[in-house]
Specification:
Number of domains: 2
Strand content: 15-25%
Oligomer: single chain
Bound molecules: 5'-O-[(R)-(carboxyoxy)(hydroxy)phosphoryl]adenosine, zinc ion
Number of strands: 10
Structural class: alpha/beta
Shape: globular
Strand order of the largest sheet: 3-2-1-4-5
Distance between the termini: 26 Å
């Protein structure tokens, strides 16, 4: 069984081919045009997908060393994401599936992120905890088995990825903020500035990051570098406030559920300091992280999850082409 995956939920145009659970190709074209605006411009992103999809899919087919006629099904991201960009990908995928007379599988992008962990660890056992940390989401899930997911806590305002992106914008570093902050933080000391770890006073597993970014803004108002404290120290301290908040909530979630396994999903999972901190929580807990290339948005997770879904579905399922994009789709 060969599944072609298509992902256009935000500003990455991506296509991937998965054959019997193995990724044969994963092409991601990041739209660099948004850098000059300091964030993703939805209308431009949709047009870029429209322009890039043909060649990205073509490349994924070539790299997989197959022909289009060998594809048995197409998996496409249905949501959550930007309405226009999702629609562009779905319309393209539907057209292709109709032409090839094959089924189409709408995929939840968040579920895709979670299942990217099975690419890193194919024998991952249920149940497991999942810290889902992306540009739009910060959630802790208890994954009991496929299609049985319990939300334990989420952010009340900004997502962790947003805290990186907005922090980077305040610092004048550029977009996307996560990798830029991570690189600068390597040259600083994370204990130099005491940024707030919000909602740690409560036992709940909820998060809040909007106050953190405001405290960075106010801190920088009066900030001047001295021999004792340099800008990389501020950046490292800011990153550590995000990381410690995430890892403390995961520590509590592990205690609460007595989970033995925890996976991390979404773009922020690429952060090496976060990975290190999580591993220090509890030696008894097994932590799984996706491959770096499968942390941020990609279509490998979409083709892989599509394959799992269609394998366990009845023959009639996924013949329905009437679905549309769901920008606010929940897990
Ligand atoms: O999963 P993703 O690619 O897109 C969404 O579904 O939102 O996540 C993007 C987010 C951005 O906020 C980006 O700044 C963050 O992931 N990110 C990182 C790193 N790489 C990407 N955050 C921290 N450290 C990184 N190395
Ligand atoms: Zn994502």
């Amino acid at each position: 069984m060969i599944v072609l995956g298509i992902e256009t939920s935000c500003d990455e145009t991506a296509a991937s081919v998965c054959r019997n659970g193995t990724i044969l190709s994963s092409i991601v074209s990041q739209q660099i045009i948004h850098k000059k605006y300091g964030g993703v411009v939805p209308e431009i992103a949709s047009r870029e997908h429209d322009f890039l999809l043909n060649q990205v899919v073509d490349q994924s087919i070539k790299e997989a060393k197959i022909t289009l006629s060998e594809v048995n099904a197409i998996a496409v991201t249905q949501g959550p994401g930007l309405s226009g960009t999702l629609l562009t990908g779905i319309s393209f995928a539907k057209g292709l599936a109709i032409a090839l007379k094959i089924p189409i599988i709408p995929i939840n992008h968040l579920e895709g992120h979670i299942y990217a962990n099975f690419l890193a660890k194919p024998d991952l056992q249920y149940p497991f905890l999942c810290l889902l940390v992306s540009g739009g989401h910060t959630q802790i899930w208890n994954i009991i088995e496929m299609d049985n997911y319990i939300l334990l806590g989420e952010t009340r305002d900004d997502a962790a990825g947003e805290a990186f992106d907005k922090g980077a914008r305040i610092l004048g570093l550029g977009y996307p903020g996560g990798p830029l902050i991570e690189n600068k933080a390597k040259f600083g000391r994370p204990d130099k500035v005491d940024f707030p770890r919000i909602l740690l006073g409560r036992e709940s597993l909820e998060f809040s990051f909007s106050g953190l970014k405001t405290s960075l803004l106010y801190y920088l108002d009066d900030f001047e570098e001295t021999d004792d404290i340099k800008l990389p120290d501020v950046i490292a301290s800011y990153q550590m406030a995000i990381i410690e908040t995430l890892s403390e909530k995961i520590r509590r979630a592990i205690l609460k559920t007595k989970s033995q396994r925890c996976v991390i999903a979404g773009g922020v999972a690429a952060n090496q300091s976060l990975r290190k901190k999580l591993k220090e929580i509890n030696p008894q807990t097994e932590f799984v992280f996706p491959d770096l290339s499968f942390c941020t948005d990609n279509a490998a997770m979409i083709s892989f999850l599509g394959q799992i879904k269609i394998q366990f579905a009845s023959k009639k399922k996924y013949q329905d082409f009437s679905f549309s994009s769901l920008p606010n789709l929940k897990l």
